[in-house]
Structure prediction request, 687 residues.
Amino acid sequence: MALPNPTDLFTQIQALRAQLHAHNHAYYVLDAPTVADAEYDRLFRELQALEAAHPQWVTPDSPTQRVAGQVLDAFASVRHAVPMLSIRTETDTESSGALAFDARVRKELELTERDVPVDYVAELKFDGLAMSLRYEHGVLVQTATRGDGEYGEDVTQNIRTIGQIPLKLPPGVPPVLEVRGEVYMRRDDFEALNERQRLRIAAGEKGEKTFVNPRNAAAGAVRQLDSGIAAQRPLSFFAYGVGEVTPPGEGGPAFGTHYALLQTLKAWGFPVAAQVELACGAPALVAYHQRMGAARDALPFDIDGVVYKVNSLALQQRLGFVTREPRWAVAHKYPAQEQLTTVLAIDVQVGRTGKLTPVAKLAPVFVGGVTVTNATLHNEDEARRKDVRVGDTVIVRRAGDVIPEVVSVVPEKRTGDATAFTMPRICPVCQSAAVREEGEADYRCTGGLFCSAQRKQAILHFAQRRAVEVEGLGDKLVEQLVDAHIIRTLPDLYRLGLSALAGLDRMADKSAQNIVDALEQSKQTTLPRFLFGLGIRHVGEATAKALARHFGTLDAIMDASEDALLAVSDVGPIVAQSIRTFFAQPHNREVVEQLRACGVTWPEGAPAQAGPQPLAGQTLVLTGTLPTLGRDAAKDLIEAAGGKVSGSVSKKTHYVVAGAEAGSKLEKAVALGVPVLDEAGLLELLK
Ligand code: IVH
Prediction:
């Protein structure tokens, strides 16, 4: 056999590298993988093998060279060729705060009201760490933290491990290019990392800890002296500017605007946030601040504000700097979502299903736009893990409409001698035993409707807008009615007379009449609302709807066998068991009977499965877009034929129905050998 020609081998190595670079970019930056993982791994191993046989050809920009072997003692200091400045922060967190920036810019540029609006670029302010990436002749040679702006730390070997950061740039880039941006951690990556850390701690591994927030986790990863560990910390990157770049006179690019610069960075393979926008004049900045504020909690990463930059680079130059801050940019923040406060007490609240929730009572603190005095500790394990004690200083977080929670204790500030929290073994409201079932996180009061806390919650649940809706029946009123023993069970609600109501504290005749009217009105309801209102564990609105559609009548649901319940899509063994248990209890059936006797009524339909049942007992998964049937229509057809639609593919799936742009579910079906149908195939099955 002839030996391979070395030139061919070298060409082959280069071709493999180019392919892997392209796949990396598609996967990490564009979020649109171009090959299956197995194919990527095969190419990667092929390159590794060739490089192992020819070490003289290994270059630092090879995709195999992301993780360095050695562990550093300390980071070297790097002088930034162009200082890494900070930006001024607009103090007013209202959206109108943007007006002040525009006014300053216009004044500095000596523009009057008659002049045209200034063009800006509006960007997100990522909550991570500033980073400078230096490329020479298209190869990543050094990355440094901001440090004091003039000198940073050389963290190259850690930053190289970030898949989103190109090691090599396409031909035609300037000989010297410093890209500046933010290294951050996505929220889902952060949660997964903390989950892994918890497992490590539970396994007794020394020196491991969980992280308080994505920013801290990212900072810890960047400053890891062992790049092997840094590589296991999932970091991401967004580019938002440049440092030193070969000037146009020496063969560098001539950019006119910041926006064009960002588009070019994107074309060269850097991740640039999709939310970068051109904004003409101050009103557009105000609108951007508002819009991103509303979108903030739905983003996959944390931001602490937005940044506005004058778009024209010529104007940027004219505006220049004051001290170390550019006049052409400003950070416009949102109200902080985390604050420090102290724990005054730890209470235990009893929920509708008897669940006991430890709640920290806090010294009032303004966070996430509201004043917070309570924060959930979720359950015993969480409370223990966080080890929150009375008197502690804690970090409280409130993001969007999510209930406020204690993120962690600030251990250095613990002074008191408060003891660790333990969950009570009896219900704090009714003194019944509280038990924690095997495999469950929660303690539950066993008092059932004997427990006044559960009774109150059950009534509020039934009366809420999404259930039978009794307008005006709020928690204060229910509290009084239950505490005064006026109502004990749901049917008692409908026995409430004007006189009983009018006798209550702060209840005007008019309000009493309104409640009576609202109760009367609530009697005409629908089966899904009634079913949901009963408060059966695990039966939420969607499940109640599915049950009503499938069975048609309440009696059919009450008497359904476990198998019959399992035939409903979205009903699994736990839900089916819960429904069976609920209706097996005579007092629950009694409540239903009495409610009906009080006049609560709803239209009942025919059970959905009147026709033949060719798909009885079969589970199907829908994925992708079907040519004619909508997803709901396909689901209805399958269910009408006795089949069940599930959201995920497993060995138990009978068929996967795949349409256009089917993704991972289709791949999984193929991998597991589950038969795959198209729309025509499904219709054939239904015949
Ligand atoms: S521009 C000269 N743009 O905010 C302007 N900074 O003090 C340089 N940051 O820690 C900064 N998102 O890392 C810019 N879209 C963005 C940013 C951003 C986050 C950080 C930056 C620095 C601080 C600015």
